[in-house]
Amino acid sequence: MYISKISIEGFRNFPHNEILFNDGVNVIIGHNNSGKTSLIKAISLVINSESSRRLEMDDFSKSLTLEQLKNNPPAVTITLTFKKSIDEPANSEDLVTVSDWLTVLNADYEAKLTYRFFLPVDKHDEYETALADCETKDKAWQVIKQDYLRFYTYKIYGGDPTLLQTADSDSLQKFDFQFLNAIRDVERDMFTGRNTMLREILDFFLDYDIKSTDEAVKSNEEKVAEIKAAKQVFSDQAAALITELQRRMRAGKDQILNYARQTGATFNNATPDFDGGISEVELFSALKLIIGYAGLDIKIPATHNGLGYNNLIYMSLLLAKMQVNSDGKYLGSNAKVFPVLAIEEPEAHLHPSMQYKFLKFLKENRLERKVRQIFVTTHSTQITSAVSLDDIICLHNLGNEIVAGYPGKCFADNDEGRESKAYVQRFLDATRSDMLFAQKVIFVEGLAEQVLLPTLTKYIDIDIADHHIAIVPVGGRYFDHFLQIFDSTRPFTIPKMVLVLKDRDPERKRKAGGSFGKCYTFDVGQNAALYDYRNHIEDKLETYQAHPNIRFFGQNHKNGKTFEYELMLSNLQNDILLTRSISNKDELNDLIQWYNDGRPEVDLLNRMRDSPASRTFRAALEGLADNTWTQQERKEVILAFRYLSSVGKGENALELATLLEENLLLPEMAVNPEDKTRKIFNVPDYIQQAIHWICQ
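Above: the chain sequence. Below: its structure as tokens.
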């Protein structure tokens, strides 16, 4: 079986939520305060018999109105739904464990456990009277904390929660819930045989070569007899050691007894002496975990290793303990049936490569059914890149309401959906999965936009870092694959605000046949009888203009083409875009100067470096008969075309970002004539509009 779903009401930042789980590994991600730790705590409250199930005032959801608080005492209700696993063996003890909690009585059974923390009914009238005069929520919560929290109690119900049938404690003990939090000190649980956990593990794995022998080779009775004989050999050897120890202690014992006689400890013929024996379990206290290095004659105590390395060792011991706890031959009826492991932020102590290896080990361990279900909360893009989309659960705080998204469930069950899912999975495997962790997402076409956007926003007095936004370059043709994860109009998605910056990139093709190819901006519509025209932004703007959480922005005007093209169109007044390494720098510098001096179009065309591309462009512009393009616009086209031809996609972005950052540090007006002043830089209008939308 596995925990298929959790329903939470009134607990922390989960006022009313339902979250689905996978049979196996569940990687729970989300930005800070999205509820990851609270979700693990909620699971623990139902099935972890080792920890306290009483709650504090801060564990209640504060979403209730004052009127709701006055009418009913706040309560916490958490329900876990269990379903049959696909690979569940026919002779599994799972069904026996949950038989009294069944809510679906067929082969694919379903069972429920419900934790409820509440104020007993006999206190309700008194409670309502006490809160009647409260004028604010703060006052109401204060009264609850001071006068009524101590009366709260909890119950765990099995089956249909409305029937209030108390779950029997013996069955609840069959769950083994182990939790490793992010702020843990494994050296507090020293790696010696004195530690209870390690002692239990050592006792279980003692004579493991005998215990693990297949029963077809050696019967259970033969194993018991062999282990009993080994214990006798150890007992005989230990007795000889105790005898030798007593011989060496003989003279010293006489001296000790002399002190006893002098203090009067030997009255009534009572004589202190030393005797004893030692068992294997008692001798475990003499053992301590050490780390030896192959090829080197070095052994050091585990407590002297780094915290990350010791956490790996500690987690391996914990998994061994879970194996011990679930072994029916060793613990009999006290054995656990359903081991669950929860790990909070394993990246807190593990190097990225160790994170990947550890997660791989956990998945293999689960397949061997040593741990039945695994929950991992993480901020690590390394971990999310190492798991399937189906394993990921993304928690998102949407206006103080927690919603859960399931990236693996967002795609249609058809060829197109499977292709999109496979593409996104490959993308996350090869890159960091920042988009799943951020509060908001900006998809861009390439490196240039990704590098420059954080700097451009500073020129409009917005620091994008304050809004927890991930900027993700995915290539213009592939936006649709990723949007399926975030489209709030569809089920299972993550409803984050998503901005897409897409280039207009006009194209045309001959009506007689052929395929679409790039064209100049001034070509569009010039020969409608011969060509069909299109661009890459208009249909997207229309489709998403009223979408709840996704917007497209681009250069939607007649001279719009690409991001770099638009940078030049917005900054024709000076040479701020001309970085040190840009090609054709002298030519561009002259073109900008001549444009601002009002030189005619022919001068600008003559200044262009001669090349096949320049000749083709010149011929097309000179052949333009459309009089709606003014002389000013025609000259702007020349500068934008030459700038776009001089920068490779993304090649210039890092240098330009540095130059623009340095420009921001300069004063707007110089104190001394020789001082440099800040150059004017204009952020393209569509980018300003886009940033204001996503940062609203």
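The domain at 2-187+340-392 is CATH 3.40.50.300 (Rossmann fold).
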